[in-house]
Every structure is written in structure tokens, then in C-alpha cells.
Amino acid sequence: MGDCKFCGKGAGLFSHAHKECEEKHIQGITILEGALRSFFKNSTPPQELQKVVLLARQSYFASEDDIADSTSKCIDEWANVIHWPFHTQHLQKVKDLLSCITISYSKINKSGALDRLCQKMLRGFMAEYFTGQKQLQRSLQISEQVMRTMPLTRQQQQDAYYEMLGQAGKNYLKNGLMSPSEQQKVDEYVSTLGLSLINLPPSLKGSHIEELGQSSILSDLQAGRPPRYNIQAPIILTRGETALWCYNNVTMYQEKVRKEFVGSHSGFSFRVMKGVTYRTGGFKGHPVETSYMENMGLGSLYVTNKNIIFMGQSRSIKVPYTKIIGINPYSDGMEVQRDGNNVKRLVFQGFDCSFILNVINLI
Fold first, then answer.
1. Which of 19, 36, 259, 310 has the most beta carbons within 10 angstroms of its beta carbon?
2. Alpha helix (H) ranges present in the chain?
């Protein structure tokens, strides 16, 4: 005979809960979540919420895990409906909640609800910086206050800051390059927060943050200044050469020519003896050349202020801009045509080539 997991009394053979106890437990969770939602809407004061939590424990068999799960669920719901600008009362609401629930922070945050709420608030404070409503240092001070209540790891902080930077990039680059004031804001932001616009992780490749970095480099090239951002690349640079960008996982194709003879035999043949045939006439043919693109492997494509450099596992090649006579852009790469005798076409696939085209136009 099993015991009821709610009241602890015998529940009968092969049973783990009384039906009435289970129904009462569900009712208690509904009451608790209703009180939590009312609390977030400022309809239920903290003292009243504390009473409901105690009632759920004592009369409706609510365990710590039950209360933590319901709290986490309602935090996510609240986080989805609130928007910046965030104020002191938002943080106070979280403090009051944690005080009323009296369950460990880690249990309530088991699903990351408090982390997500904190990250959203951080993004809001940084949005006020980008829109000119706050100085960056003030936004950082408020962020630190929030993280004293809802701590985040360094990676979680950077994720929030990068997401806001991407949103700023989307707004700033609507009309092309950034204005000087926008560029100044971006530079201050990445410098103060220890972020980067280059050498980005794979998750940020192709993002608005990558576009911000490229826009900054193009702006410097256009003004004749040394680029403020440059990458550390495992390539030997010539005097005055700077590595501007790197595209990883790029496939290079090189044009190859296949030559074969095509033709036919003329004349006739007759049998001399068993196993021996004599053919008159001869073979008439002509050479035919066909070109094809051979896969030269996967590698990294580096963009400098003088060259395009492909470094693969089996093949590497340098293409000076002065030797390029034409580029055919594709949606996922480009074809490069070079000057010189018997120089074959190259195709690089696996990236957006618009940045390279802009670099070549400015140099």
C-alpha cells in the first residue's frame, strides 16, 4: 500500500495520492499563482502575498519546489510585459517578492527566470544610454545595483550588453555608415564594457554587431585614418599592411582546365587470321578543353588593406588588390578575376562579400 505524497496517509494499493488531496493541491497552486500575478500588478501588497504563500504550504500541500516553480513562471510572465525605462519600483518589486517567498534564490532561479529578468533590465538601462537619456556611467551604476539583487555571471552580463549593442547597430546603420556622434557612443560602449566589434564568437557572425565593426573600419578608411579596430591574424603582413577582417569556414574553388582528344577512326578492318584484325586508315581527332571549378578546401579568408589572403589546410593564396580586374559578387561569396597570363578564376564561398567590395572601393 502506498502513501499519499500530499498528506502522507495511506492511499491504497498502487496509488501515490488521494484524489481529493491532488485536487486540493491544484487548487492551492492556482490560488498562489493568482496572488503572484496580482502582486506584480500592484493589486496585492507584499504582506498579503506572504499570507497566501504560508496558506499554500500549510493547507494546500505546496512544497518549496511547487512555490519556486510557480514564482518562476509568474516572474517570466511579468518580464514579458514590462518595458524600459525601468525604475526603482521594479527592483523593489523583486526585493519584496524574494522576501515574501522565503525560498532560496537558486531554487526560484532554477529555470533562469531571474537571470532573464535582470538581463532585460540591463538592456533597458543601456538603451537609455544609446538614446541619450543617461550617461554610460550612470547606466552602469544602476546595472550594478540591480545585479546586487539578481547576480549574473560575466558571460550573462556580456550577452545582455551585446544584445543591446546589436539593437543599437540596427538603428544606427539604417542609412549606411554611422554619424560621428553615433560612432563615439559605440566606441565608448565597447571600450568601457570590455566588448569587441571584431573576432566575434560564431553566434554573432552576420549580426548587426559585425556590421558595426565593419562600418567603423570603412569610416576610418574613408577618412584616411588607420583603422581603430584590427585583428590579430596568423599571417605575415608586409610593411604598412593591416589585417582588417577574417571570415572563417570559407571554401575556395579554383578554375581548372581538362584537355582531351575527341574524334573517330576512318577506313575499315578485316580479319587476317583467328585473333588478328587489320585496320586501314587512321585516327582523326582534335583537342577539346573544358573548364571546371575544383574545390581547394576549407579555410579562413583574411581581408587586409592590401590583399585578400586565403589560408587553408592544403592550399593558401594571396591576391593583391592591384591584381584584381573584376569581382562577381554572389549571395554567399564572390568570384575573383585576376590580371596576368594563364591566371585562373577563384571563387570564395561562405560569407557576405559586401565588406570586401567596400574596402576595395576605398583603397
1. 36
2. 19-40, 46-59, 64-81, 88-101, 105-108, 113-130, 136-149, 154-172, 180-193, 208-223, 354-362
What distances in angstroms separate CA 305 from CA 273, 282, 363, one per listed residue?
Answer: 75, 59, 7
Indicate the SS3 state at residue 330: strand
Query: What gap in Å lies between CA 226 and CA 242, rounded to an integer?
Result: 9
Mean pLDDT value across residues 314-325: 94
* Domain coordinates in residue numbering, the chain: 2-152, 174-228, 243-259+290-362
Give burial (CB, 10 Å; 0-12/13-18/19+) of 344: middle
SS3 7: coil
Q: Per-residue pLDDT tens for 261-306?
A: 655 555 555 565 666 665 655 556 556 667 778 999 999 999 999 9
Contacts for 296 with CB less than 8 Å, ≥ 6 apart = 251, 252, 253, 254, 312, 314, 315
243-259+290-362: which CATH architecture?
A: Roll (2.30)
- What secondary structure does DSSP assign to 252-279, as a single string? EEEEEEEEEEEEEE-S-EEEEETTEEEE
Cell of 154: 560575466
Residue 13 predicted with pLDDT over 90: no
- Contact status, residue 122 vs residue 160, Cβ threshold 8 Å: yes
Tell me the C-alpha to C-alpha distance, in Å, between residue 167 and each of 126, 147, 170, 171: 11, 22, 5, 6
Separation CA 25–CA 79 (nearest Å) = 26
CA atoms within 13 A on the CB side of 211: 19
Q: How many angstroms separate the Cα of 181 from the Cα of each of 131, 161, 163?
A: 12, 20, 20
Run of H or E including 42: none
CB under 8 Å to 119, separation ≥6 — which residues? Answer: 152, 156, 159, 160, 163
